Amino acid sequence: MITGELKSKIDRVWDAFWTGGISNPLTVIEQITYLLFIKRLDEIHTLRENKANRLKEDIENPIFDKDQENLRWSRFKDLEAEEMYETVSTKVFPFIKDLNGDANDAYTKYMNDAVFMIPTPNLLEKVVTMLNAIPMEDRDTKGDLYEYLLSKIATAGKNGQFRTPRHIINIMVDLV
C-alpha cells in the first residue's frame, strides 16, 4: 500500500511532467521508468564497487567503465540543468539503450524504440531532484510506486488520454 508521503512525492513528479509539457500518462510513466532505471544502475554499480573495495578486488561485472563515470546518476544529478540535459539526452540515454550491446538480446531489442522525451533541461533537473528524494531501498517502495503509477493509467484510459507506443505493443505480441 502506498504511503501518503510517497504518493505526495510521486504526485509532485507527475505534476512536474504535466506543467513541463508532457500530459500523456503513458509517456510520463515511461520517462519516469527510464530515469528510475538509470538511478538503479548506479545503485547496483555502487554496491559492486563497495564489495570490491572491501575485498580489495576488481569490480565484478561493472556496469560503468572508468571513462563512463559521468553517466552515473550520482554524478550527473548535481550538474546544472543545461549540462545535465546534455549528458542525459546525448550520453546516458544512448548508453542504456545499448547496455547489453547484443542486437539479439531481448533487452536491446525492446529498448531500440525507446525515446528520451523530456523536452527541457529545467524539467529534467526538477524531476531528477524529486526522484532522487524518493528512498528506493525498500523493495516494496518500487512495487507501490508502479502500482500507483498504473492506477493513473487506468484513470487516463477511461478518459481515452493515452496511446500504446509501438515497442510496448511489440513486446506484448512477442510475449503472447
Comma- or semicolon-separated keywords:
single chain; 176 residues; mainly alpha; 8 helices; 66% helix; 0% strand
Percentage of residues in DSSP E strands: under 5%
Low-confidence stretches: 158-162
Count of DSSP E strands?
Answer: 0
Tell me, rounded to a whole number, the average pLDDT: 86
What shape does the CA trace take?
globular
Distance from N terminus to C terminus (CA atoms, Å) equals 30 Å
Structural class designation: mainly alpha
Q: Can you give the helix content as a percent range?
A: 55-70%
For the largest beta-sheet, the strand count, sense and barrel status come to: none
The total of helices stands at: 8
N-to-C SSE string, H for helix and E for strand:
HHHHHHHH
Rg measurement, Å: 17 Å
Summarize the structure in short.
This protein has 176 residues and is mainly α.
Helices and strands in order, then pairings?
Layout: H1 4-19, H2 25-55, H3 73-76, H4 81-97, H5 106-111, H6 121-132, H7 139-158, H8 166-175
Helix pairs in contact: 1-6, 2-6, 4-6
Describe the structure.
66% of the residues lie in helices and 0% in strands. It has helices spanning 4-19, 25-55, 73-76, 81-97, 106-111, 121-132, 139-158, 166-175. Helix 1 packs antiparallel against helix 6 (121-132), helix 2 packs across helix 6 and helix 4 (81-97) packs across helix 6 (121-132).
